[in-house]
């Protein structure tokens, strides 16, 4: 076991790390969005402790599972609907606007980084996006608003308007392969940063959790801000067990000039 030489870090230490960095990659997990009222679906009391996740193969094979999936989506039971970015998202958006952060890799599907003003091209979504749907055959994008009414009024399970293929929210489901494009972009970003900043991820879901170590092995500093200890704390150059919003607001003040 490595010694945790970084414990006792403060928000001021985090601010210094960020100020000194030139090419930051931000990696976010459920912890940044719990402050927007979105439950951490893996935690006790989270969504998956109350209802079974629907496996990708079951969604494809079974119309009843597709109906259940769309019922969950349109009932808002997953907790994503109508949520707003919080101070943590805003601080990340400032880092991107200042040019200090070029990419935000996220495990979240809530679209809140884009909602905070970051260009979609700079958000790398490892688990997809729950705020719209795509065709599983031709990848045509479908807006949830366009699918909702016919599902709720006549119970029509969404099909693709272009090819009649199956339509599913643009999330990566259990049993579905990790998306190749975002995985490749996340790897490239991890190899080209001088600070890898983890915000609100317990870093237990592989392969995504391999990116911090990849960055670290290629010379980046690793900073972790999370309420609870993570498995990678011993490898980090800075560990701050803190709330994301207040910590990042202190570290990236709203009125600071770009450095
Ligand atoms: Zn299609």
List keywords for this structure.
259 residues, alpha/beta, Rossmann fold, SIR2/SIRT2 'Small Domain', 11 helices, 35% helix, disordered N terminus, binds zinc ion
Number of domains: 2
Bound molecules: zinc ion
Main sheet makeup: 6 strands, parallel
Spatial order of strands in the largest sheet: 3-2-1-7-8-9
Average of the residue pLDDT scores: 90
What is the number of strand segments? 9
Low-confidence stretches: 1-5
Write up this protein.
The protein is an alpha/beta fold and 259 residues long. The chain has two domains: 1-38 and 84-127 and 178-259, TPP-binding domain (Rossmann fold), CATH 3.40.50; 46-79 and 131-171, SIR2/SIRT2 'Small Domain' (2-Layer Sandwich). It contains eleven helices and nine strands. The protein has helices at 11-20, 30-33, 47-50, 56-61, 63-75, 87-97, 112-115, 144-154, 180-191, 210-217, 244-251, and strands at 24-28, 101-106, 123-125, 128-135, 141-143, 167-171, 195-199, 221-225, 238-240. Strand 2, helix 7 (112-115) and strand 3 (123-125) form a beta-alpha-beta unit. The longest helix is centred in the N-terminal third of the chain and has 13 residues, at 63-75. It is elongated and about 55 Å long. The two termini are 37 Å apart. 41% of the residues are buried. The model is unreliable at 1-5 (pLDDT under 50). The structure holds zinc ion.
Task: Quickly describe the structure.
By secondary structure, the protein is of the alpha/beta class. Helix content is 35%, strand content 17%. The chain has helices at residues 11-20, 30-33, 47-50, 56-61, 63-75, 87-97, 112-115, 144-154, 180-191, 210-217, 244-251; strands at 24-28, 101-106, 123-125, 128-135, 141-143, 167-171, 195-199, 221-225, 238-240.
